[in-house]
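$ fold --in a.seq
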Amino acid sequence: MSETVNYKYGFFTTLLISGVLVLGSRSAPPQEKPRTPADGHDIHVLAPHKMDGKVMGPYHHYCKPVSSDVLECLIYESTEPNALLKQVEYFVAKNVSRSNVSLENWNKFYHDHAVEIATGRVQVLDRSPEEAKKIAEAAAQTDGIIFHLWLPDVGHKELTAKEYTAK
């Protein structure tokens, strides 16, 4: 009788362990990552910028449409994963920018993307030639305004995390 008890005990123990292993190995359905404002910047453009009459760059623009009239670009000096965000540029439909901004302010802060694209120095990367042409044609219908975050080329020093926290 003790052999029967040991056999039943062994059988149920094996069954229980097998059940735990099977249930434990089933992963929960993958959770969809919540979307963030940073998602979708997947139009990659390589273009120089002109500052104070000096051509600088080229800069890597990672862009996404945020409305039918505005494209937002995060701008980096390289494609390295830890590259510092240097600038943010908005491509604003000309009918919006030119009807809402005085000529004085437009001349001070904006630039015409049609002029930039006509130089031949703007490249749409990671897209077929047909898609790149459509993106460039759409961009030529916009004005750009750039917000500079770091300007080491004109005398601003980038701080390391240690330097920043020491201030």
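$ fold --in b.seq
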Amino acid sequence: MNHADHLCDFSDGGCSAARRRTKLRRNALPGSTMSGKLPWYHAGLRFGCRGCGNCCTGEPGYVWVVQSEIEQLAEMLSLDVDQFETLFVRNVGRRKSLIEMPNGDCVFLQRPSMRCKVYPARPLQCRTWPFWSSNLRTPEDWAKTAQRCPGTDHGRLYSLKEIDAALDQDR
């Protein structure tokens, strides 16, 4: 399955492409529903993955993974967990992140197709793109996201409830 074949459905925890940067907690969002006010995106936001791979490359960052994700990824690649971690995971304090290529690409981004080698088993962080708190703090942050992600502001309209579901999955 490629990026363009799969649209977000946060009701079951899924979503399209993604990566980069540590996300802030939802209650850190100005105007979040946690403070009793509706967030600026209360009418919903549009997103439709274009399969460009831009979310999987660029500046350095972290793709956080937990043990269950590591196990799923290892299984998908027919590796045992120890082999997978040796080849593809780095420790960052007490957390774990996928490694990156020297050019900033995710280790699983395949060029030139710009497709994810592990797309069906991609980590939660990837599945919730672009609905990360760092992209949703302000309309300006969302506009910056749209500059690098051609699917942002296009495609299906996601409701506040669906966006909140993605934000609730922050770790």
